[in-house]
Design a protein that fits this description.
heterodimer; A: mainly alpha; about 0% strand; disordered C terminus; B: alpha+beta; 6 helices; 4 strands
Chain lengths: ~325, ~200
């Protein structure tokens, strides 16, 4: 009974909802950057009329072989083709809607509707190019999914006009934050654990390999050779920080340090491998899950009633 | 409240199953340093994870479809063992364009931004892993046709798909450089004749 009560206290801790605002702001920028980065190649990746790099129909057929129920661009295009618009025009409308949904996430207008629209558009885009997608897309879809199912958080701009958040909503906000926290712990544990079994991460070979492997070779090998002695240290750092994440991210004493280390790691990945979108989504997810309390001033994002302020998401007795 | 906890348990179970499947496949792979008996055990464990994810059912099975769709829409269908156990060499696709006058030019898939370049690189990695020959041919043909639209005068495009052998820092210091091994070569003919791939 005590264990059940502890579990319930752990999962349904009341939360101010600031984490959701950080998640929404981060994802808004992520969606905007994603759409903008694909703008020059949007038609060549997904267009059919002038022919793309790889036929969208072929990729969607591959997707159907895996899951016939996963949303894709083909569905959206077919849904509005009765208007007589061309494939190209509809694709640009979808691109505009995706871009605007990112902007609306940033602004915080109509949060529920916009989070659903962003998730659907992003998901359909990624799945119609499933052979082009990589880790950043999975994490963005996961983030958008959590944003979509979480209780509606208030817009930073509209926060002052709304007040009373019920206890039930605050508990649900805490519960949804717990999902994200536990998910990240699983992610880092498995990412680190799988690396620990490879000698290449302990002797620094994989750091060299990751930094020199095209297309991640932002830095020249000649430049990297100056720091060869650091590769062992960096490889060990990555293994320890990732594997230790589920242990050291929970206690208040080590949470700030571990969050800082993981953010430094992602900044490093972003800057040295050119994976800026990947770095941004991971930093967003981490700050949202474990860093919401680090931002000074309750009024920074939300002007909440004083009653809610002391409630921090952390396991009882450990945080 | 019970429903929320049950949903959370189910969701995290799927995340865990995907991670375990990925971990077992990674550690049980050829490039892992584990013993043969450990790899055999991991193979069984990987199969158990696949069962949990419904992958032992046929593609059309509703249970499999439901689980796969759920993992797809939540972004949890892939594991997180990035660059483990080793950083594999990147793949490269080069087009050899043959013109009627005997001229030969070389080209690679063209993209408009670095972000798309990363995605094309991912596509090539997928292409290397595709074991279904017809699908690989169809994907290559699609890429070749995109190149032909840029070079409509070419009568034959030879698509050479290769993988790089990365060099270590020590080897690089000694003067060795990354080299590419061709894995597949396909010829696509244009100009009235049907296009056909020759391996």
């Amino acid at each position: 009974m005590n264990k059940a009560a502890s579990l319930q206290r752990f999962l349904f801790v009341t939360d101010s909802g600031r984490w959701l605002d950080i998640l929404r702001l981060g994802l808004g920028l992520q969606v905007i950057l994603f759409a903008w980065s694909l703008r020059p190649d949007w038609q060549s990746l997904f267009g059919q009329e002038r022919g793309g790099q790889v036929s969208r129909l072929l990729i969607e057929a591959v997707l159907s072989g895996n899951s016939s129920l996963t949303p894709r661009l083909g569905w959206l295009i077919n849904a509005v083709q009765f208007t007589g618009l061309s494939d190209t025009a509809i694709l640009w409308i979808i691109w505009s809607a995706l871009f605007c949904s990112g902007g609306l996430l940033l602004v915080g207008l109509w949060p529920r509707f916009v989070s659903i629209a962003s998730w659907l558009l992003y998901l359909a885009t990624v799945k119609s190019g499933v052979l082009f997608s990589y880790g950043v897309d999975n994490f963005t879809i996961t983030g958008l999914f959590y944003l979509m199912i979480a209780p509606v958080s208030r817009s930073p701009w509209l926060a002052g006009k709304q007040s009373n958040t019920s206890l039930r909503t605050r508990e649900r906000l805490g519960f949804h934050r717990r999902i994200l926290q536990l998910h990240l712990c699983i992610v880092y544990f498995f990412a680190g654990f799988s690396k620990c079994f490879a000698s290449g991460w302990w002797n620094g070979d994989n750091i060299w390999g990751a930094l020199t492997r095209p297309p991640f070779n932002v830095l020249t090998p000649e430049f990297l050779l100056h720091f060869e002695s650091l590769f062992v240290l960096l490889g060990t750092f990555v293994c320890l920080v990732e594997t230790g994440y589920p242990i050291f991210i929970w206690p208040r004493k080590t949470r700030g340090l571990w969050l800082l280390l993981i953010i430094v790691m992602h900044l490093g990945i972003g800057l040295t491998m050119g994976l800026y979108l990947f770095a941004w989504i991971m930093i967003t997810l981490n700050l949202s899950a474990f860093g919401a309390e680090l931002f000074p001033g309750e009024g920074w994002i939300l002007d909440r009633p004083r009653l809610f302020r002391p409630h921090i998401v952390a396991p009882s007795g450990r945080g | 409240m019970f429903l929320w906890i049950a949903a959370l348990a189910l969701h995290l179970s799927l995340v865990l199953a995907t991670c375990l499947q990925d971990l077992f496949a990674t550690l049980g792979g050829e490039q892992s340093a584990l013993s043969a008996s450990s790899k055999l055990a991991l193979k069984f464990a990987s199969r158990a994870s696949s069962h949990f994810l419904g992958q032992s059912f046929s593609n059309a099975n509703p249970i499999r479809q439901t689980i796969t769709t759920y993992t797809n829409i939540t972004g949890i269908e892939a594991g997180y063992s990035f660059f483990a156990p080793v950083v594999s060499g990147p793949n490269k696709l080069v087009f050899e364009l043959h013109y009627p006058d005997g001229r030969i030019e070389y080209d690679v898939p063209a993209v408009g931004s670095a972000a798309t370049g990363y995605r094309i690189s991912t596509l090539l990695d997928h292409l290397a892993a595709v074991h279904y020959v017809r699908l690989r041919e169809a994907l290559l043909q699609s890429l070749v046709e995109a190149s032909h639209r840029e070079h409509p005068q070419a009568v034959l495009i030879r698509a050479v798909f290769g993988v790089a052998d990365l060099v270590s820092a020590t080897e690089y210091r000694a003067g060795k450089r990354t080299s590419y091994r061709p894995l597949y070569v396909y010829d696509f003919q244009f100009g009235g004749e049907s296009r056909h791939p020759d391996r």
